[in-house]
Specification:
heterodimer, A: mainly beta, Hypothetical Protein Tm1070, Chain: A, 3 domains, four-stranded mixed sheet, four-stranded antiparallel sheet, 4 helices, B: mainly beta, 18 strands, globular
Chain lengths: ~280, ~270
């Protein structure tokens, strides 16, 4: 009987409005809240790094035409780029023909700014009402690649965290990630003692500043080091670690958002690895 | 219960790091000791060997040099945790909710050359090994077709039933409506397909991968000739372009359209 009641209640509260209400009241907020308007397009919050060392490229694809291929739609994509403090740097609209993809060099959208930051890609096409009918939202969590500046070799990583939503007819973006009342702990299931240097990069998809605590341990979970920071909304924090002693083996982070997963760069003798924790 | 794979690629050392702790708190206790197993399939049975016992909170690195000597060179090993030591043969792989977490319980699958490494943080989800046949649709742009670079597709397939039956995969460019390559692959195997012979330029028309015969995880490895630089990343299943709602139903319709289209191109070619 309790299962039946749960099922009935779930049908009642399993609505976007209730996601927002739970987040606002702080009553078991979901990790991600559904936008109130079904035609809002969602994007992961991607990382870019562009300077004298780094280049970043994004594989922009006409996602509506891949999803609804019999309605060959032109896709109008808005790319919004933020700096590390979460300030908007640029906003560009790129049109894609059906099934088209384009390699976007992020440097070309930065107006001369260098460093690192985040970006989102928001799609809009006539065929998106088909997606809406299935109760789904289109989300861009495609592929970012990083290279040394002037190199031809790109190292790929896909998007990692649902971040923002945007309606094509409005300028405003909205966060999908509510703050959780309880501290959320995340531990990447991998080891860091195979390289001399590594970086953990955390972005903040929430609409409020994010307090982050990162703890580093040896193989027996004895704490060796800890770092704390406050990341502005849409901004990011790059934490660099020297591990020539190979003492740092395991990592844990604590924050008030769900699934706060870092992008990890590990540096080896001839190249780097990039992956999601 | 998830499984973890080890592609065997000439010139590279492969290792799999398995952690006996969940990535998020509260979903599973840390207190369970786990037996690390490796399994491989012949045409009628799963062969299983216990490799180690892993205490809670610990992680263990399995390298390709430490595989059981009786594992044939042309068969792929799959790793998994189980609380008890299992018999040396199984009729079917175990499907269970053991270690079911959100996000999934992952391992680090790493390919290393003498000077660099590339890794894939992932798993073969337990929910996929019950799929007896399935299909594959990968619409990703991860193939790097440049001089001096080599791209390979690592197509991982795993099912609960043993067997090494052959299936086919096709590579195509959608705007050009052209099949570029057909390759044979095996069930219960990390298939390595060299993409150097793909006859296309790196245009705005990405190389897509299709199969009517089996499902799997498509992972793209790109490297230079001496393995001083490597990139390793998987493409998403189509449902990952959607969130919330009935993604499965939408993916089914979409896959049907793409696979029928690709079959038409193949007939025309």
């Amino acid at each position: 009987m309790p299962t039946i009641i749960k099922k009935i209640l779930r049908q009642l509260y399993d609505k976007p409005f209730c996601d927002h209400l739970r987040a606002w009241l702080g009553i078991r907020p979901p990790f991600f809240i559904r936008p109130l308007r079904m035609l809002e397009s969602i994007s992961d919050l991607f990382l870019w790094r562009v300077d004298d060392t780094w280049e970043t490229q994004y594989e922009l694809m006409n996602l509506p035409s891949l999803l609804v291929p019999d309605k060959t739609a032109i896709d109008s994509v808005t790319i919004i780029i933020y700096d590390a403090r979460g300030n908007e740097i640029s906003r560009s609209i790129i049109k894609l023909n059906p099934f088209e993809s384009k390699k976007i060099l992020i440097r070309s959208l930065l107006k001369g700014v260098t460093g690192q930051g985040t970006f989102g890609c928001f799609h809009s096409a006539d065929s998106m009402d088909e997606i809406q009918k299935a109760g789904c939202y289109l989300v861009d969590r495609q592929y970012v690649s990083y290279s040394w500046k002037d190199d031809i070799f790109f190292n790929y990583a896909h998007g990692n965290i649902y971040g923002l939503s945007k309606l094509a007819t409005e300028n405003k973006t909205r966060s999908l990630v509510p703050m959780q009342r309880n501290t959320q702990v995340y531990r990447p299931q991998l080891r860091f003692d195979d390289c001399d240097k590594f970086e953990l990069i955390y972005s903040n998809p929430a609409k409020e500043p994010l307090k982050l605590l990162v703890r580093l341990f040896d193989d027996n979970w004895n704490e060796i080091e800890r770092r704390s920071s406050i990341i502005p909304p849409r901004g990011l924090e790059v934490l660099k670690f020297d591990n020539s002693s190979r003492e740092l083996v395991l990592v844990e982070n604590q924050s008030q958002i769900g699934l706060c997963r870092p992008v990890i760069f590990k540096f080896y003798e001839s190249f780097f690895d990039v992956l999601h924790g | 219960m998830n499984y973890y794979f080890m592609p065997r690629i000439e010139g590279l050392k492969c290792s799999v790091t398995l952690s006996n702790f969940p990535c998020v708190e509260g979903e599973r206790p840390w207190s369970l000791e786990q037996v690390l197993h490796v399994a491989w399939s012949d045409h009628s049975l799963w062969h299983v060997r216990a490799l180690d016992t892993v205490s809670p909170g610990k992680s263990v690195v399995c390298t390709c040099d430490e595989l059981p000597s009786e594992l044939p060179n042309d068969i792929s090993p799959f790793f998994f945790f189980h609380p008890k030591k299992l018999p040396s043969t199984l009729d079917r792989l175990i499907i269970s909710d053991l270690m079911l977490t959100s996000p999934n319980w992952r391992a680090n699958i790493q390919l290393s050359s003498p000077t660099t490494s590339a890794s894939y943080q992932g798993e073969y989800p337990g929910s996929m090994i019950g799929v007896e046949k399935g299909t594959l649709l990968s619409l990703g742009p991860l193939v790097q077709l440049k001089a001096e670079l080599t791209s390979k597709l690592i197509l991982v397939n795993l099912g609960a039933a043993p067997g090494n039956e052959v299936g086919h995969v096709r590579f195509a460019q959608m705007s050009k409506q052209k099949i570029l390559l057909e390759a044979t692959v095996r069930r219960n195997h990390c298939n390595i397909i060299d993409l150097s012979t793909l006859n296309c330029d790196e245009s705005d028309d990405p190389v897509c991968v299709f199969s009517n015969d089996l499902t799997g995880i498509p992972i793209f490895l790109t490297h230079d000739l001496r393995f001083t630089k490597m990139s390793l990343e998987h493409t998403h299943p189509p449902a990952e372009m959607l969130v919330f709602g009935d993604r499965g139903k939408f993916q089914k319709q979409m896959k049907g359209w793409w696979l029928s289209k690709i079959n038409k191109y193949a007939d025309n070619n």
